[in-house]
Write a structure and sequence with these properties.
108 residues; four-stranded antiparallel β-sheet; three-stranded antiparallel β-sheet; 0% helix; Rieske_2Fe-2S_sf; 2 iron, 2 sulfur cluster binding; iron; oxidoreductase; nitrite reductase [NAD(P)H] activity
């Protein structure tokens, strides 16, 4: 991941604090974030809002590098935030990095 020195990284938690194949919610005024952990311990962060009808992605099922929205079963790619065909839309992504088992998030 190419990161600029000016990116304001915020310590979130340990990777182990996020359930494997699950998520953790980061509450904020501008909209909650869902931080996901895959079976391979890769961590992703998306706005906790499905691009379809605003469903809580944090309550969805993680499989591979995809989360399925609990409301209408849209599949959202955790890497890009894009809905998978035939659905169209995009959930905002946030940069994440993991260092020594600790998760850092950029809200920039």
């Amino acid at each position: 991941m190419n990161m600029s020195a000016s990116t304001p990284w915020v310590h979130l938690c340990a990777v182990e604090d996020i359930p494997r194949l699950g998520s953790r919610v980061v509450e904020r005024e501008a909209g909650n974030l869902a931080v996901f952990r895959t079976a391979a311990d890769t961590v992703f962060a998306l706005l906790d809002r499905c691009p379809h009808k605003g469903g809580p992605l944090s309550q969805g099922i993680v499989h591979g590098e995809t989360v399925t929205c609990p409301l209408h079963s849209w599949n959202i790619d955790l890497v890009t935030g894009e809905a998978k065909a035939p659905d169209e839309g995009c959930a905002r992504r946030f940069p994440v990095k993991v260092e020594n088992g600790e998760v850092f998030l950029s809200l920039a």
